[in-house]
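Hey L., structure's done. Input below.
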Amino acid sequence: MHAYRSHNCSGLTSENKDERVRLSGWVHRVRDHGGILFIDLRDHYGITQILADPDSPAFSKVELIRSEWCIRIDGVVKLRDPSLINKKINTGQIEVFITDLEVLGASEELPLSVFGEQEYPEETRLKYRFLDLRREKLQRNMKLRSDVVSFIRKQMWSKDFREFQTPIITASSPEGARDFLVPSRLHPGKFYALPQAPQQFKQLLMVSGFDKYFQIAPCFRDEDPRADRSPTDFYQLDVEMSFVEQQDVFDTIEPVIQAVFKEFCGDKKVDDHWEKVSYRDALLFYGTDKPDLRNPIKMQIVSEHFKNSGFEIFSSILLQEGTEIRAIPAPKGGSRKFCDRMNAFAQKEGLPGMGYIFWRETDGVLEAAGPLAKNIGPAKTEAIRKQLGLDVGDAAFFLGGRPSTFETIAGRARIAIGNELDLTDKNRFAFAWIVDFPMYEADEVTGKIDFSHNPFSMPQGGLAALSGDPLDVMGFQYDLACNGYELISGAIRNHKLEIMFKAFELAGYGHDEVEKRFGGMVNAFRFGAPPHGGCAAGIDRIVMLLAEESNIREVILFPMNQRAEDSMMSAPSAPSVDQMMELGLRVIENR
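Output:
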């Protein structure tokens, strides 16, 4: 017999009756029922109930074991009494009578329980992540992650893509986040960078003649942590294709993502039709470029109804250039109680409040109510109601100013209204391609022009588009949004050097700077670069959505904490003096 097991802890059934077996695993829990000791023995695959009575030669050993000890047992498989069958586990028809036991690894008292789903401080969970990962939910999440990655690979291979591995140590590149820098021992004073993405390398692969590339790529960005983003590293499905236009990329990657969600979504619905929404419309209708389309609410501009109206606040706002009034429809939200609740929500978000109107029926007559309604009169409230398609029992909320000052809060209010009024279909995965991103943005303080998205994207209209106002230039850039998260970002690439130099010039990068920072790509484009494009899909976020988790750390094996620290491995740590001298570095303390 094998030294540790003849079966795993999910492998025994009634067909194994009276067999002598060997199992190894962790003691999930111990129960004493009238002198008979029952143990739930757990491994990666499942649980088997084992037991010992006082007549068992191993009984004295069994009495000593405790939860989470790692043990090996020999025993005989017996059928359970029909009344005691446990249909919740694969081994529920049998139990194993212990004849011998060996302790493979005793355990000290646990800092957190791995049985059940008790809540523990995140620092405790991350410091003892190896114990946290024994919990059923995390075991399930990590198995899901592995299965999703395997499934994606098979999908990509079936579409004639080749998987290639690109370098981890490379040069710095402006991808929109801070680099992690690595000092060079052989070249004192110089630094490598960990790649924010394999962007340049996958484009170089297209220049090299590899028509379809993909990789499950590790990426490194020194970012502030969020619930849906790791502060250090993450994995993405990285894709690039030659001789393609934007729609070709959509037609290729859409079936892959759709198949992944349909395979692992459980009972949830997966949209077959994916909308295309322009970036500007996404901000207008949803207040974000990653909209949750499970929520049917669309915001609308209603400025014309407030010009020279009796509501002085909005009327005076509209006298300023670049301002507007936007309405958030709230079907079924037509009560003062609900309106007051949403007003309180706005105040928590840092606003004085939100104006609102709600419609009710009084003596058989439709009536607009609320402070705003009184100020602007029945004709304007009726025009607003018709524009928004509202009726009795509905409401609308209003925000005004420059869109950049209230758009984000309006988007959050839209989500809150959809949730509060039960308008959002939580049993669905809804997707939308966000297209026509602006190539550039201006700093609100300095007015400096910089790239707003991927700097290597082809501007719509080519070189001619770069001769006017940079803020009017749109790129062949696109994102895929799902349920309020960005899952994919991509672009058709700028493969023409004259367009590339001009695009970087508008963002303040001179010809020499582009040559210096992107010399590899510049040189490659001199030797017959094909039109190409691609995208990258966030593996962590895909798994987070499929696992129905709200925190990305629940689907990452060994995540960092909110301060980008690994408390389990004590990273980051101070280097030794010898290491610093070898690298020619010294630390300047912050004052």
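The two ends are 65 Å apart (CA to CA). The first strand starts at residue 20 and ends at 33.

-- N.
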